[in-house]
Design goal:
The structure is a homodimer of 209-residue chains. With 209 residues, chain A is of the alpha+beta class. Chain A is 35% helix and 26% strand. The first copy, chain A, folds into two domains: 130 residues, Jelly Rolls (Sandwich); 66 residues, Arc Repressor Mutant, subunit A (Orthogonal Bundle), CATH 1.10.10. Chain A has a four-stranded antiparallel sheet. A four-stranded antiparallel sheet of chain A has the order 2-7-4-5. A three-stranded antiparallel sheet of chain A has the order 9-11-10. Chain B binds a DNA duplex (30 and 30 nucleotides) through helix 7.
Chain lengths: 209, 209
DNA sequence: AAAAATCTGTTGCAAAAACAACAAAAAAAT
DNA sequence: ATTTTTTTGTTGTTTTTGCAACAGATTTTT
């Protein structure tokens, strides 16, 4: 992985950069709501969180799933959206908040954290782009089956193993793949019956190839 | 729009930056194929192009649609993809090619183009992220109808008008929304019959709100 | 100007997905 | 330890989507 690990210089931040805030969140708390005017940038230092959207029908979508070192925030969104977007902690989280425009200027104390972050900004955002592109690839798959298989192979690659634990409940997985839960369950059953996967709780094992 | 217009400094490039290449493409020509090793970055100076993927079933997906000043290239993709991705010119195009890693170093002639591009890289990529996020929002819509309406309202906003011309043929629109063409045509007909839209050729007019 | 290729509009039918609902299991809260 | 809430697994039914096929229109090529 050729992107910058935020945690590697997080300690430098401790000496009071006046442009950033640091906050802790408990599981299920709302970390931020996207209002699209503050140009907020958030860095997940620790924990897991989801970007969530509800549509007019009450359908929940897990738009993105964030883990350690991921960046998110309303600066990554343009006004188009009329649905409310918010980020919710899936586990206890530590989050750094900053304002994009401040990042480009130096901070008062001219701190190293600020400087490093600024220098590596393009790299960080670039990494985000690659994540979003895999997400798009997943979402353009035509069937629920292909989405499942596609997602499983991402997890398999990431874990360097045919076996892996889903980071979601099955209910949330459906919301992440943007499909109906019961239809997904049926498909999951078929995949099992046809010998493509094994499933014990939320641990999946790929049996193909 | 708060992102940098590439064309505004393209003239500075003319004085021989040794790190970039400039090429012209005729309609339907393949501009590049994503091989994911060269870290290529491309800038569309003029024209229109699509990033295309074919899946194992022969389904075509228009993954992205590029217009003037858009950036693309394999550097935005991680290895995950096993399907071939390529960019095809929809109109005659002018494209600048460079290698991401070269961008971070200065070029021999220390040219202004190179410098400006490098300075504004984060901004350019950030703009791409916002585009990808709207794309994701579109793709997570649950029905063909919602995808159509969602896409139409993006075009409507972009054109500042209830009427707009589709940048695609209807065949391509289906591939862009990742749905079956005939099903989409049926839905389009319903939208017309129910008085939501008007359609003359590939000009759509929104009648709601 | 004619021929070839692509796109549009449409339909019947098959397949997949969504909806709705419920009981059992598991997890979380008290 | 018990209650409450959430998740899982399942299924019947309805709706939506995909597939296949074709004729007419339009565009592109020769």
């Amino acid at each position: 992985m050729d992107f910058l690990s935020v945690s590697s210089f997080i300690k430098d931040y401790e000496d009071h950069c006046d442009k950033v805030q640091h906050k802790h969140f408990k599981k299920n708390e709302t970390i931020t709501t996207y209002i699209a005017k503050r140009n907020q940038v958030c860095i997940l230092v620790n924990g897991e969180a989801d970007l969530i959207r509800y549509d007019y029908n009450g359908n929940k979508t897990i738009v993105e799933h964030f883990t350690k070192n991921d960046i998110f925030g309303e600066v990554f969104y343009s006004i188009t959206t009329n649905n409310e977007l918010f980020v919710q902690a899936r586990q206890d989280c530590d989050v750094i908040f900053l304002v994009y425009d401040n990042l480009k200027n130096k901070c008062k104390s001219n701190c190293k954290f600020h400087q490093t972050l600024s220098d590596n900004l393009a790299e960080l955002i670039l990494h985000k782009v690659t994540i979003l592109n895999s997400r798009i690839e997943l979402l353009t798959k035509r069937s629920t089956r292909d989405k499942l298989i596609g997602y499983f192979s991402i997890l398999s690659t990431r874990n360097l193993s045919k076996s892996f634990k889903l980071p979601f409940s099955l209910t949330d997985l459906a919301d992440y793949l943007s499909v109906d839960r019961s239809a997904m369950m049926r498909e999951l059953k078929s995949l099992r019956d046809e010998g493509f996967i094994e499933k014990t709780g939320n641990v999946i094992t790929l049996l193909y190839r």
